[in-house]
């Protein structure tokens, strides 16, 4: 009798463990699926928005249906992605994002969604409708509602406090939101250290365990020594690791860019003028690419022919530099003096801007 009972108990235990593991696997499952009616599209590509130069996956379209399926590991965090297809006529051969209707704002088309645990469905309603409908993660909700934080008032302290309270209310409503946490991180330079810590404290425990939250904490640590940049090593086009900052130069100009960034490419002629005028007057230039595709970076170097130091960033130091310098917008130029102190930090490039980039450099070097 005891043997019989022990067998039953063992069988129930095995069933229970199996059921728990099955449910756990289902909880960790990530599925992106959908339908597309245009027969010309045989493949769909999935891109990470933060790394737009290289697809992270692709899948075949079979009988108008497609599907991506993954299992999330312990390090997974929801992040923004987009689906791309080749243009319908095949003339240009480029990949274009799939557009889908914003479920909260009429006549608004989106192309980005959150890759998250669970099922995201993206469907083309008919052959006449070129846009898709989406049903996905709750992470999409504040993003599609276009929730934004205040650019805090610098003139009126009372007004600044009111704006801060309104932003805290938004976080409390969507405390699970990686979109809002990322938005806070991107806007981090407009806050005092105390304001930034206060806003961070209102996010959920899940956000608090994420890599994004750790980046915010790294920024707070870096903020205490934000005026100085220590030397670091990166890979060259010859795949050698070399120091980026030339300690023998009076000034170092660091240019953060990418081969896929159009304003970065337009800035290069201006940089060539700077190099021509100042490289023999104590200024060392170093361009640092944030490309994920080594071949695309090398191709851009062959085309642009920039006669100064060229480096490509790696993931191990990218987060550290991002915390110190904010690499969310490029092109970014950083001018350092001989002691490594930051004396100029400029984001973006506009041919019509005044003063020009070369004027800014001339003002400080002269």
Strand content: 15-25%
Low-confidence residue ranges: 17-24
Count of domains: 3
Please provide the count of β strands.
18
Mean pLDDT: 85
Structural class: alpha+beta
Q: Determine Rg (CA atoms, Å).
A: 25 Å
Main beta sheet strand tally, sense and closure? 7 strands, mixed
Structural overview:
Helix 7 packs across helix 10 (315-325). It is built from eleven helices and 18 strands. It has 366 residues and is an alpha+beta fold. It is globular. The strands form four sheets. Strands 13-12-16-15-14-17-18 form a seven-stranded mixed beta sheet. Strands 2, 3, 5, 6 and 9 form a five-stranded antiparallel beta sheet that branches. The chain folds into three domains: 2-144, Immunoglobulin-like (Sandwich); 157-223, no CATH class; 233-365, Glutaredoxin, CATH 3.40.30.10. Strand 17 and strand 18 form a beta hairpin.
Provide key terms for this protein:
about 375 residues; alpha+beta; Immunoglobulin-like; Glutaredoxin; 3 domains; seven-stranded mixed sheet; five-stranded antiparallel sheet; about 35% helix; globular
Summarize the structure.
The protein has eleven helices and 18 strands.
Topology, pairings included?
Blueprint: H1 2-27, E1 29-35, E2 43-48, E3 57-60, E4 65-71, E5 79-86, E6 95-97, E7 100-101, E8 109-110, E9 113-115, E10 118-124, E11 132-135, H2 140-144, H3 157-173, H4 178-186, H5 193-200, H6 205-208, H7 211-223, E12 233-236, E13 241-243, E14 251-257, H8 262-278, E15 283-289, H9 294-304, E16 309-312, H10 315-325, E17 332-336, E18 342-347, H11 357-365
Parallel strand pairs: 1-10, 14-15, 15-16
Antiparallel strand pairs: 1-4, 2-3, 2-5, 5-6, 5-9, 7-8, 10-11, 12-13, 12-16, 14-17, 17-18
Helix pairs in contact: 4-7, 5-7, 7-10
């Amino acid at each position: 009798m005891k043997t019989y009972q022990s067998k039953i108990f063992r069988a129930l235990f095995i069933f229970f463990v199996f059921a728990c593991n099955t449910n756990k696997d289902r909880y960790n499952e990530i599925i992106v699926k959908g339908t597309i009616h245009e027969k010309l599209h045989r493949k769909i590509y999935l891109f990470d928005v933060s790394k737009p130069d290289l697809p992270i996956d692709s899948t075949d379209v079979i009988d108008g249906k497609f599907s991506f399926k993954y299992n999330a590991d312990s390090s997974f965090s929801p992040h923004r992605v987009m689906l791309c297809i080749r243009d319908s006529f095949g003339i240009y051969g480029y990949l274009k994002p799939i557009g889908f209707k914003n479920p909260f704002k009429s006549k608004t088309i989106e192309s980005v969604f959150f890759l998250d645990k669970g099922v995201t469905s993206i469907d083309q309603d008919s052959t006449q409708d070129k846009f898709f409908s989406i049903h996905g993660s709750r992470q999409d909700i504040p993003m599609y509602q276009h929730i934004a934080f205040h650019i805090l008032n610098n003139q009126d302290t009372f007004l600044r406090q009111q704006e801060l309270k309104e932003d805290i209310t938004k976080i409390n409503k969507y405390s699970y939101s990686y979109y809002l946490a990322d938005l806070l991180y991107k806007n981090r330079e407009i806050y005092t250290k105390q304001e930034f810590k206060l806003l961070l404290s209102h996010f959920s425990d899940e956000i608090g365990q994420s890599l994004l939250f750790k980046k915010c904490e790294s920024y707070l640590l870096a903020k205490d020594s934000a005026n100085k940049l220590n030397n670091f090593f990166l890979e060259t086009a010859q795949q050698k690791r070399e120091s980026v900052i030339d300690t023998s130069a009076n000034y170092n100009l660091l240019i953060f860019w990418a081969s896929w960034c159009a304003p970065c490419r337009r800035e290069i002629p201006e940089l060539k003028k700077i190099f021509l005028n100042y490289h023999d007057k104590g200024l060392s230039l170093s361009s640092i690419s944030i490309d994920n595709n080594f071949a695309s970076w090398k191709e851009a170097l062959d085309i642009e022919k920039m006669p100064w130091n060229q480096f490509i960033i790696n993931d191990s130091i990218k987060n550290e530099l991002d915390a110190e310098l904010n690499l969310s917008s490029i092109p970014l130029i950083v001018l350092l003096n001989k002691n490594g102190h930051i004396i100029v930090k400029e984001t973006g490039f506009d041919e019509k801007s005044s003063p020009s980039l070369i004027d800014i450099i001339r003002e400080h070097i002269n």
